[in-house]
Design goal:
Number of helices: 10
Domain HTH deoR-type: 3-58
Strand content: 15-25%
Keywords: DNA-binding, Transcription, Transcription regulation
GO molecular function: DNA binding; DNA-binding transcription factor activity
Shape: globular
Radius of gyration: 18 Å
Number of domains: 2
Strand order of the largest sheet: 6-5-4-9-12-14-15
Protein name: ArsR family transcriptional regulator
Organism: Streptomyces griseoruber
Helix content: 25-40%
Largest sheet: 7 strands, parallel
Oligomer: single chain
């Protein structure tokens, strides 16, 4: 079994059952205990789980509920969202990430001849009555306070689709260009969105440099464009450009 598939099964097991021993994980995944221990070490380094004596436990996120975040830096987020919407061409398929910034992008897509794929319930509610937009809502477990769908069903759905571009949110961008999130359960969904998209556009206002987050979503090499209003973050932007990322200051 490929490492990525093992990691997926390990994380699913922890999300479903909580703390689990190495021996049980080895049996479920069909790998040796030594292999599982190496997997757990890697996944802990990525912030996706916490190793405990004899096994591992899921990481509990500490991000703010959707309604609280929606009222933060509204004007900046809306300016970034408007620029992103102008990047979209009619007829395209667009993936919109979880979070408030993606919701603001959706507000600028009304009346466009597009296909929008999302696991963001706020995006779904924003566009559900727009007859011009073909709207695809991914399945998954509902996180009510965060207005999102997550879990293995969401990840499986994403493997069945392809988007022209993804508008990706983040809770933080490190000076070395690493993209972070505060909630481990959302990381596999974000990674699956990246894999399903021809172009990845990271939307990050000034508050996301360095922002917060303990779980790594991706590196700068996985991004195509970063849209931001953080001109003071020249070191981070220079690192992104070195990785071939187009940095757009709005």
């Amino acid at each position: 079994m490929l490492p990525d598939r093992r990691h997926q099964l390990i994380l699913r097991s922890l999300r479903a059952d909580g703390p689990t021993s190495v021996s049980v994980l080895a049996e479920r995944v069909g790998a040796s205990q030594a292999t599982i221990r190496r997997d757990l070490a890697q996944l802990e380094d990525e912030g996706l789980l916490k190793r405990v004596y004899g096994g591992a436990a899921p990481v509990v996120g500490e991000d703010d509920p959707f309604a609280d975040v929606a009222g933060v830096r509204v004007e900046a987020k809306d300016a970034l969202a408007a620029w992103c919407a102008n990047l979209v061409k009619d007829g395209e398929t667009v993936l919109l990430d979880i979070g408030t910034t993606a919701h603001r992008v959706a507000r600028h897509l009304h009346g466009r001849s597009l296909t929008v794929i999302t696991s963001n319930l706020a995006v779904y509610e924003e566009l559900q009555d727009d007859k011009d937009v073909q709207l695809i809502l991914l399945g998954g477990v509902v996180r009510r306070d965060y207005r999102s769908l997550v879990g293995f069903l969401t990840e499986d759905n994403l493997r069945q689709v392809h988007a022209d571009r993804l508008f990706l949110g983040t809770s933080g961008v490190r000076p070395d260009g690493q993209v972070l999130d505060t909630t481990a359960v959302e990381v596999p969904v974000k990674r699956a969105m990246i894999a399903a998209s021809a172009q990845v556009v990271l939307v990050a206002d000034a508050g996301k440099f360095p922002g917060t987050g303990m779980a790594r979503v991706c590196g700068p090499e996985d991004l195509d464009v970063v849209v931001t209003n953080a001109p003071g973050e020249e070191k981070t932007c220079a690192r992104l450009r070195e990785a071939g990322v187009e940095v757009v200051a709005v």
